[in-house]
Amino acid sequence: MTNPNLVRQSTNKLEVEVLDEYARMVDLLDQISNSAHELSTLPPYLLENMLPLERKMGLVLTLFKASVWSVLVQKQRESENHLHHH
């Protein structure tokens, strides 16, 4: 039988790790935002050359959102399965 305190501790540790990753991601997104602001002052012909990069960044954001959604749905299912089996 699993010790509930051990489960809580490991869950809390995982939550802390996830929050730490999100904090790092926020820092990276701030850096990207600052870079984008700097790039917005470039001449138009340089910006036109960056359109493919913008599309790729949009794709990365979409994939990131999908992966976060997938993790949340999986976590919800695991919680529901855990409740139904106990």
Task: Kindly describe this structure.
With 86 residues, this protein is mainly alpha-helical. The chain has two domains: 1-41; 43-86. It is 88% helix and 0% strand. It has three helices and no strands. The protein has helices at residues 4-39, 44-48, 51-85. The chain is elongated. The model has no long low-confidence stretch (mean pLDDT 85).
CA-to-CA gap between the ends? Answer: 12 Å
Strand-pairing-aware structural class: mainly alpha
Strand residue content? under 5%
Look at the structure and give the mean pLDDT: 85
Radius of gyration: 20 Å
Order of helices and strands: HHH
Describe the structure concisely.
The chain is mostly helical. It is built from three helices and no strands.
List its salient traits.
3 helices; kinetochore; cell cycle
Task: Show the helix and strand layout.
Blueprint lengths: L3 H36 L4 H5 L2 H35 L1
